[in-house]
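#onboarding

Welcome to the new folks! Below is a worked example of what a typical request in this channel looks like: someone posts a single protein sequence, and someone else replies with the predicted structure as tokens. Don't worry about understanding the tokens yet, we'll cover that in week two.

Example request:
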Amino acid sequence: MSRSYGSGVLLASINQFPVYRIGTPSIRFHQLPVHALPARLDVSAFRPFSTVESLYCQELSGEATAVVFEAVGKFREDEFYMTTHGRPEEECGDDRGWEACCWVESPSGDAKLSSQWSQMMRALHLITLRHTLQDPKRRQTPGTLLRMDNHGVTLKIGWSLRDKASGTSRATRLPFFNSFAVHRPPRTAKDVDFDRLVSVTFTLRSLEDDRARTSYYADLQSVVLLDYA
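Example response:
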């Protein structure tokens, strides 16, 4: 029996951010056939919004609109810091200063969702590769967005627990919702059911340093627990 998920309905009811997906509203980006991707990407590009950071957008009628990606997968238990406590300060490193982050893997046991996951990962790889190759001096920093291991290709998502402008805490605003669209951000990893499928939405950003090294990041917009595992 085929499965369907209602994350689109949940996102509409959450209404925390404007959702835009490539294609018509009825087509999610990860469901586009592979042969359709180049045409879709021709009207999309990274657009600068600071001196070092860019946001992946689609051009519509002369205006750039942020593309919000959606993927269904499962949280990895290792290196899981997508909580209001985040990760230990000594492990934060210098990757955009995210305090809340984790890796998401392919949804095992469901052929259709696994195929959609693979297609999304290929699309993200294609987008970042095309952007990197546009500048012969640009080099991509590996491991900030996608990672290959014995679980296949995994995706890293992150969210800042502090407001960059004011420095105040955003921990209680971590956009983590249950299957009834109720805001329930986990305090620690013990509050997370790692057997549940999750729908994650994110924007794609690039960050360039002074040595022309470019890192790509999936900036979390929402996590919604799905009502089946």
